[in-house]
Structure formats: structure tokens, C-alpha cells
Inverse folding.
């Protein structure tokens, strides 16, 4: 008998697997064979070592035994390293796949070498039965629409290695364009091919199928929809469930939608007998929510459960309490968007929100862990909403949490790094995702972590081997690090330029208005030095690398992205960050005034725009560092989806230097919001008991469902009406109202803003940008 070869890896003994042989167990089926194939091909791609397969055991060599023991919890496995033998035993066929995946995550590997710690053993099964991701082949995504079948299968393997047991596909007809210039194959063919690939690993196949037709009370439309859905799903090898979003897209009220889906269920189960149907109450008005609950109380036999995702306006636990107990709840979390999202980045600096926009490369490991754990006990699991690979790290964190909620994020990231980059650089690359997340915390201009993160990733870039530099996950991390550093540098430069121009305007009485305006205008026209610097150049190089490696479309004009908000961050990386456009517009207006005193008065008014005067107060509610009177009664960790009264911030700034929004003050670009009619409150202390006050307010941008009116707004002071529900004024327009004397009689004041949210939509109605409390002159 030949003794096994052991190596010293990171100070510990490890079994050398360079000459190992894979021994599949007798009786292994097609899924187990696929697991063996995955292991051989993936490790050969990483190390150039292709393990041979031999059905007979031989104690004189190093062997990797792979088999199905057909007992134990679903999806679980046992993995052990003893002597010269590695044993991977799945509890079922899919458990073999997950056992192989965990084995690969524990390997130390590099060019021409593979090993695993000696004596390593684990026996495990997942906490939650549903752990999946949506992967739709459609133009709206920032990369998926350019993938061929080989790329799809590689990505499925990557996620299966971390415990994914379900994939959700999207049919050819959805709320999207019918074609993409990136499609390598027609949508229906690719959908069927991807479904077959996923099914070969034993994955559940779900289909996100929106009900898009105008009128499901029309029998002809119902029959046409049944024919369409049947034709699509009949081309798939299996369908375990369909998920029908009630809104976004779709616009059918529950009392019509439910009878339609009952008919669909009967037709579809003739093709896929075990198919289940889930419905998502997304963007339902309160009336429609009550209607949906009433429909579930009838306990329809065709309905398996409810999905909870973006635009769900009732907190999940409340929704679950109102449903009959037999209906399951599946989460549909938005892990792909960073704003205009179910889980926006908390208190995101406006400069980052403007340049990274809605769908950037967004590793948020700590946020994702918190969001998963926040509602995990209220659902059977999740299939997460995604529109590309920009959220790749988030996908991995959700899968790890779905398997073992107690696993620290740091350990998940170490496994992520080791699996995709090897043991030499991998753990450092994985943990760098925490640094990228920290780049988005706090005021960008003074965030020292941004420069440190870039230095760390540049060091890894210098140490990287060619296969690392070609790895799209490494390219994404670099792109984010360079982009964050570039945005920080440009923000500092643009703010300094603006401050210099404002300082020159403040000298108008000494210099004369015309001279001060001319000098300020000249300052504002100075080019930003960073626009042509090495950081900006490297961002462009990485954008090209990402398009070549993973078809990531970071530009509408260059890479044919479908829109700037869909991951086209190369188009937004240079967007205006300071008030240049506002001041240049003001200067142009002042130059039309013929009288010096009028010009000086107008300049003074602009310079003192945010000054509330003696005894007054000003809040820029969209700036998390300039909102001293905003009441935040619910913290982010308790309410990351902001459904229970939390306040979140959003940015609606210019998309180019010539945008009309650029002519508005930057304080108008940002706003504080609440969801679903939850009030927004401000609290003032130590006011004069004798003085009278006025409130000036700039309301924010309304984000609602297409075709629905903007939510009306109301303001109260200590429960006393200041103004009743009114239509939203023009953007940037300030409204001013007197505060009733009795509201400030005790020296305190609570302002309460409300929105009429009886309308259908995502629940976003209440948005406030700026508030002044002005003390009247005696």
C-alpha cells in the first residue's frame, strides 16, 4: 500500500490530491454523474489537473469517493477526509451535488496543485428548503442577455456549489423588449436550454410569469393566455412552480386574477402535474390587498402560496398572519438594485447614488446577511430577484445564509474567494468585498476607507496571475474600487470649485456684481482634473474587460445597454456632483438685470437660500448629515425594507451636465421618504413660546406606478392642520405656511407629513427634500 502524500498548507497538514482518482459509487444516477462531471471540469479549469474516474476502489491510491447514501435530510451530505481517502456522501442525489460543491469550496488550489486539510469532516443539511435565484434571459438585464448556454451552465454550477437548489426563469413575453442586440439565441430556445441544464443538476425549475393582458374577464383573452402559457411551459423539461407577480408588472385586481389563475392551473397541470402556483401582491393598493386576503380565505386548492418581494406594501409577518395557515410564503428579495429598490443602500452619499445609480456592481455582504435574517423565519426560503451578475456576491451570501444562518459573513467570503481565485489570493479578494461595502458608508468626501480599499485591490492586482485578471469577478471588484475612488476624488474637486465660485460671489459688494459673476463663472467652467486622469482611464479599460468576459453592458452607446439605470455605470460615472449648473443658471439670470442693486439683492438671496434667519432652523432631509430634526423612530437593522415606518433617502439628480435638473440646487436632488402612508416626522425643541413661526417646504419627486396619479400630501403641526392634501408642486418649488400659535406654545413642535396612499403602486408617495422653520420678525 502506497502511503498518502501530505503537504504543509498554511501551517496545517493537507492531503495532496494531484494524483487522486474519482470513484463514483455503484448505482449513482444522472444527477450524481453530473456532480462528478462538474467536479472534474471545474477543477481542471482551475488547476490543469483532470482527475481520472475509476469505478473500482483501490486502497493503494488517493481516492475521492462520491455516492448517494439515500437517507437523511433533503439536500444534505457528509464529507470526510481520512488517510488517503475523501468521501462525499449525499443524502439524496442533489445532496451529492452540494457535497461536491462544498468540497471544492474547501480545497486549496493553484496552477498544477490541489489539496485539502487532513482530517476535515462535515455533516450538514440546509436550514431552509428553498434557496434560489432568478436568472432571466431578457434585454433588461445588464449581462444575462449576452450569455450563451455554456456561460449559463457555468454560472449555474457556481451557484450550485454554494447550495442553490432552484432557478427561476422568465418567459419570452414579459415587461421587456422582445429582442436584444446581445441575444446569441432566440428567447424561447435559450429558456428551454437553460431549464434543461438546471434540471440536470436536480434543481427546481420556477417560472416568473406575469399576467400582462388587459382584461381577464374577457373569455377570449383568458383562452389566449392559457394557450400562450401552455405553449411556453410545455417546452420545458419540468416546471415545479410558477410565480405570478400581481403588479410590477401586471395590473389585474385579485378578484379577477384568482379565477384566471385557477383556469391556468388546470391547463398547466395537464403538462406538469406537480406544478405549484404562487402569487405576489406587489404594488397592490390597500383595497386590493384586502381583496387578495379575502380570496385566500376561500382556500383555493390551486394556490400553493404567496411571494413577498419588491412593492409588497404589507409587512411580511402581518401578511402571513392574515393568510390561511396552509399557504406557504416564499421571499422574492431584490438583491440587485441599490436605489429605487426594496432594500436601498442606507443613507447612501448622493455622489455615489448619482454615479453608481440603480444597478451597479454592488457587493453588500453585511447588508444582505441582515436582510436575510430579518425575515428568514417567516418564509420557506427565497428565490431572489436579479437582473444580472452585478449582485454576484449578494447571491452567494443569500445562499450561504439559506443553508446555515449561523455562518459568519467573513467565512462565506473566504470560501467565495478560495473557490473562485484559489488559496493564494482568494481569501483576500473575498474579504475585500467588505471593504467595497464600507466604501458606501458615511460621507464620501471624508471616507478614508475608499483610498485604502483601492490600495488593497491594486496590490492584489499586481500579485494576480493571468487567470485572475481574466476572471470577471476580479474585474468587477477592481471596477468598483477604481470607480469609488474616482468619484471621491471628483467630488472633492467639484465641491472645492463650487465653494471657490460661491466665495467669489459673496464678494459682490466689494468687487461689483458684474466682476464677481464673471470671475465665478470662469471658476465654474474650469475642467475637472480627474476626468482625464489615470483612475478614469482604468475604469474604461475595466469596462471593456467586463464586456468581453461576461457581456456586462456598462454603457448605452458603447455596449448597447438598455438604459443608463440598468447598470450603465460608465455613462453615469462622470455625472455632475456639485451645484455648478445651478450657479451658472443663476449667473445667467442675474446678468439680465440692468440695476446693480437688483443684482446684489438677487445674489444675496441665492447665497442665503438655506439660511432660516435668527431663531430659525433648516434641514436638508436628503442629506443624512444635515437633518437634525428628522425623527427616526425605527432603525435600519429593525426595518431594512422600510415597511414599518423607517425613513430612507433617495436621489433624483442630473443624468448629464446639460440636464434641467442640474439647474436646481443640489439639496433638491435628494429627499427623505417613507412607504405606504407611514408619516414622516420632524421634532423641534427650545423654541420661543411667544414667537410665531412659518414653515417652508420643498417636496420631493414622486415615484409611482405608471398610469396612477401622484400621491397627495398633507402637513400637520402637533396634530393641527397646516395644509390639507394638495397636489405635488413643481419640482424645487418651495411652499410656505403659517404654523398655528398653539402648536409651539410649549416651546416644542412636531411636524407630521402624510401622503394619501390609497392608490396602487410601490407605496412611495411621501417625499420631502427641504424644510425651513422660520421665526417671524417681532
Amino acid at each position: 500500500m502506497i502511503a498518502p502524500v501530505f503537504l504543509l498548507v498554511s501551517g496545517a497538514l493537507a492531503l495532496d490530491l494531484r494524483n487522486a482518482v474519482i470513484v463514483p459509487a455503484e448505482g449513482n444516477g444522472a444527477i450524481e454523474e453530473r456532480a462528478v462531471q462538474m467536479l472534474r471540469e471545474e477543477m481542471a479549469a482551475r488547476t490543469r489537473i483532470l482527475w481520472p474516474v475509476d469505478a473500482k476502489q483501490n486502497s493503494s491510491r488517493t481516492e475521492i469517493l462520491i455516492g448517494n447514501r439515500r437517507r437523511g435530510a433533503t439536500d444534505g451530505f457528509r464529507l470526510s477526509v481520512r488517510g488517503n481517502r475523501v468521501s462525499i456522501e449525499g443524502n439524496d442525489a442533489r445532496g451529492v451535488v452540494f457535497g461536491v460543491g462544498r468540497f471544492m469550496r474547501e480545497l486549496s488550489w493553484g496552477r498544477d496543485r490541489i489539496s485539502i486539510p487532513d482530517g476535515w469532516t462535515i455533516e450538514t443539511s440546509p436550514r431552509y428548503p428553498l434557496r434560489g435565484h432568478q436568472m432571466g434571459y431578457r434585454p433588461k438585464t445588464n449581462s444575462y442577455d449576452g450569455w450563451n448556454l455554456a456561460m449559463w451552465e457555468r454560472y449555474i454550477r457556481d451557484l450550485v456549489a454554494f447550495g442553490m437548489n432552484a432557478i427561476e426563469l422568465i418567459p419570452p413575453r414579459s415587461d421587456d423588449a422582445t429582442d436584444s442586440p446581445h441575444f446569441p439565441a432566440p428567447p424561447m430556445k435559450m429558456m428551454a436550454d437553460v431549464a434543461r441544464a438546471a434540471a440536470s443538476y436536480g434543481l427546481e425549475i420556477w417560472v416568473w410569469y406575469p399576467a400582462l393582458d388587459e382584461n381577464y374577464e374577457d373569455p377570449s383573452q383568458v383562452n389566449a393566455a392559457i394557450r400562450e402559457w401552455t405553449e411556453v411551459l410545455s417546452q420545458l423539461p419540468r416546471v415545479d412552480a410558477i410565480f405570478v407577480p400581481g403588479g410590477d408588472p401586471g395590473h389585474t385586481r385579485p378578484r379577477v386574477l384568482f379565477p384566471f389563475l385557477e383556469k391556468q392551473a388546470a391547463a398547466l397541470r395537464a403538462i406538469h402535474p406537480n406544478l405549484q402556483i404562487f402569487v405576489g401582491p406587489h404594488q397592490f393598493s390597500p383595497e386590493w390587498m384586502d381583496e387578495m386576503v379575502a380570496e385566500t380565505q376561500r382556500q383555493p386548492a390551486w394556490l400553493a402560496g404567496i411571494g413577498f418581494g419588491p412593492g409588497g406594501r404589507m409587512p411580511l409577518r402581518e401578511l402571513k398572519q392574515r393568510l390561511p395557515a396552509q399557504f406557504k410564503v416564499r421571499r422574492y428579495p431584490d438583491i440587485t438594485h441599490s436605489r429605487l429598490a426594496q432594500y436601498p443602500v442606507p443613507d447612501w452619499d448622493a455622489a455615489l447614488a448619482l454615479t453608481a445609480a440603480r444597478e451597479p456592481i454592488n457587493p453588500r455582504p453585511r447588508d444582505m446577511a441582515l436582510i436575510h435574517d430579518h425575515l428568514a423565519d417567516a418564509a420557506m426560503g427565497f428565490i431572489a430577484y436579479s437582473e444580472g451578475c452585478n449582485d454576484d456576491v449578494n447571491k452567494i451570501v443569500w445562499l450561504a445564509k439559506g443553508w446555515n444562518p449561523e455562518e459568519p459573513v467573513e467565512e462565506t467570503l473566504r470560501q467565495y474567494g478560495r473557490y473562485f481565485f484559489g488559496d493564494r489570493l482568494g481569501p483576500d479578494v473575498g474579504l475585500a468585498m467588505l471593504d467595497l461595502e464600507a466604501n458606501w458608508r458615511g460621507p464620501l468626501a471624508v471616507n478614508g476607507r475608499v483610498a485604502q480599499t483601492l490600495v488593497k485591490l491594486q496590490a492584489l492586482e499586481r500579485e494576480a496571475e493571468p487567470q485572475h485578471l481574466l476572471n470577471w469577478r476580479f474585474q468587477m471588484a477592481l471596477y468598483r474600487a477604481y470607480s469609488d475612488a474616482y468619484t471621491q476624488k471628483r467630488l472633492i474637486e467639484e465641491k472645492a470649485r463650487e465653494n471657490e465660485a460661491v466665495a467669489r460671489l459673496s464678494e459682490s459688494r466689494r468687487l461689483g456684481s458684474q466682476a464677481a459673476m464673471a470671475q465665478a463663472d470662469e471658476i465654474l467652467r474650469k475642467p475637472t482634473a480627474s476626468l482625464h486622469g489615470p483612475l478614469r482611464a482604468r475604469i474604461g479599460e475595466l469596462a471593456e474587460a467586463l464586456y468581453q468576459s461576461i457581456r456586462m453592458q456598462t454603457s448605452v452607446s458603447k455596449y448597447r445597454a438598455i438604459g443608463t439605470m440598468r447598470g450603465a455605470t460608465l455613462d453615469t460615472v462622470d455625472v455632475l456632483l456639485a451645484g455648478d449648473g445651478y450657479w451658472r443658471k443663476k449667473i445667467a439670470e442675474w446678468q439680465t438685470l440692468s440695476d446693480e442693486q437688483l443684482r446684489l439683492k438677487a445674489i444675496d438671496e441665492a447665497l442665503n437660500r438655506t439660511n432660516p434667519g435668527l431663531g430659525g432652523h433648516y434641514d436638508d432631509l436628503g442629506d443624512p448629515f444635515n437633518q437634525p430634526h428628522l425623527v427616526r423612530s425605527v432603525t435600519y437593522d429593525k426595518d431594512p425594507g422600510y415597511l414599518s415606518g423607517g425613513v430612507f433617502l433617495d436621489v433624483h439628480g442630473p443624468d448629464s451636465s446639460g440636464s434641467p435638473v442640474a439647474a436646481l440646487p443640489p439639496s433638491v436632488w435628494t429627499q427623505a421618504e417613507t412607504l405606504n402612508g407611514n408619516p414622516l416626522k420632524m421634532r423641534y425643541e427650545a423654541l420661543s413660546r411667544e414667537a410665531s413661526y412659518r414653515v417652508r417646504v420643498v417636496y420631493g419627486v414622486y415615484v409611482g406606478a405608471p398610469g396612477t396619479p401622484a400621491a397627495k400630501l398633507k402637513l400637520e403641526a402637533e396634530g393641527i392642520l397646516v395644509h390639507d392634501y394638495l397636489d405635488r408642486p413643481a419640482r424645487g418649488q418651495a411652499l410656505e405656511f403659517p404654523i398655528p400659535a398653539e402648536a409651539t406654545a410649549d416651546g416644542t413642535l412636531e411636524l407630521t407629513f402624510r401622503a394619501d396612499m390609497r392608490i396602487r403602486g410601490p407605496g412611495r408617495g411621501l417625499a420631502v427634500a427641504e424644510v425651513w422653520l422660520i421665526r417671524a420678525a417681532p
